[in-house]
């Protein structure tokens, strides 16, 4: 089969011919229709140390739309021919940037009634946004929300999910050229992070109060502005780096709370954590099917272009989603 491989010795991507992998006891073999590209895939050079035995045939690709062609002996509830969607385990070798991929059956979800590219654009970004806003921040209609990086994958989905919740004030940051885009997603105000003091502008927009909830999708050091923008007893989710309350102004007296979230870490934390991934995926798929969530900027590319594109995603911020179609 054709696959995009990553060589940890040279930090390079290459298209290679590999044997079709064999599913383990609890796994399924999936014929890949589409695979979404994400910053975490592009930054494999930074997390390869977590996989000491990573070889030159390691295949990345986490967000997979496809069809089951073989099931492991211990798999129940799934069969060949089932269309499925999943967010993969980054510490396993047979990812979705290949004609065939392996995934543990426990975190599969039924494929939503949308096209494969649209489905594959959703898991990492939209499921992360859903978990951040619902599981961590417990977002409610009356809250105000700040989302940094609103023109990116997670940020764009977060704006839409917050709008669906009924949040009254959704403030986001992005470059000026993307303001119209984020406003079309449902943001009530866009701040040009390059030209404006984000925390000061947020306080101006909220009558001096600050926001009730915040989601930082940008990092590093963006957490400083986000924490400063929080209202009394406000809460923040940090996705990119580790929160550092000691660096934030008057954090105790302001009663601030902080959360971390790594969607894929749930694959390695037992059945309850796996169920949280499935719950988020099921909810987002329902929203996609009902038209309450969309992928307004979607580019599809062939597998041959996936390596250079991952390098590009690593080196710059992107707008919308890119999906590899096989």
Question: How would you characterize this protein structure?
Answer:
This protein is an alpha/beta fold and 326 residues long. It has 2 domains: 2-121 and 295-325, Quinone Oxidoreductase, Chain A, domain 1 (Alpha-Beta Complex), CATH 3.90.180; 126-263, NAD(P)-binding Rossmann-like Domain (Rossmann fold, 3-Layer(aba) Sandwich), CATH 3.40.50. Helices cover 28% and strands 27% of the residues. It is built from 10 helices and 15 strands. The strands form 3 sheets. Strands 3, 4, 5, 6, 7, 14 and 15 form a 7-stranded mixed sheet that branches. Strands 10-9-8-11-12-13 form a 6-stranded parallel sheet, with helices on both faces. Strands 1-2 form a two-stranded antiparallel sheet. Helix 4 crosses helix 5 (153-165). The longest helix has 19 residues, at 271-289. The protein starts with a strand and ends with a strand.
Quick description:
With 326 residues, this protein is α/β, with parallel strands linked by helices.
């Amino acid at each position: 089969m054709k696959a995009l491989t990553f060589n940890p010795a040279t930090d390079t991507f290459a298209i290679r011919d590999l044997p079709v992998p064999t599913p383990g006891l609890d796994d399924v073999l999936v014929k890949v229709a589409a695979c979404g590209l994400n910053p975490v895939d592009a930054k494999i050079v930074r997390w390869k140390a977590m996989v000491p035995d990573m070889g030159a045939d390691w295949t990345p690709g986490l967000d997979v739309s496809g069809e089951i062609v073989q099931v492991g002996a211990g798999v129940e509830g799934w069969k060949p021919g089932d269309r499925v969607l999943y967010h993969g385990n980054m510490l396993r070798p047979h990812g979705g940037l290949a004609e065939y991929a392996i995934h543990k059956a426990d975190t599969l979800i039924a494929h939503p009634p949308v096209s494969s590219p649209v489905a594959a654009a959703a898991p990492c970004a939209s499921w992360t946004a859903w978990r951040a806003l619902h599981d961590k921040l417990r977002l409610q209609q009356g809250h105000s929300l700040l989302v940094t990086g609103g023109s990116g994958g997670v940020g764009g989905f977060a704006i839409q999910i917050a709008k669906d919740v009924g949040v009254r004030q959704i403030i986001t940051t992005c470059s000026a050229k993307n303001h119209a885009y984020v406003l079309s997603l449902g943001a009530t105000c866009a701040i040009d992070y390059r030209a404006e003091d984000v925390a000061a502008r947020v306080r101006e927009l909220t009558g001096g109060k600050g926001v009730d909830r915040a989601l930082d999708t940008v990092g590093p050091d963006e957490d400083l502005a986000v924490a400063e923008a929080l209202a009394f007893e406000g809460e923040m989710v940090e996705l990119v780096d580790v929160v550092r309350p000691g660096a934030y102004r008057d954090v105790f007296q302001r009663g601030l709370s902080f959360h971390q979230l790594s969607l894929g870490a749930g694959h390695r934390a037992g059945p309850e954590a796996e169920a949280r991934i499935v719950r988020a995926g099921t909810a987002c798929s329902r929203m996609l099917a009902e038209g309450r969530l969309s992928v307004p900027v979607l580019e599809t590319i062939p597998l041959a272009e996936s390596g250079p594109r991952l390098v590009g995603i690593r080196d710059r911020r992107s707008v919308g989603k890119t999906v590899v179609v096989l």
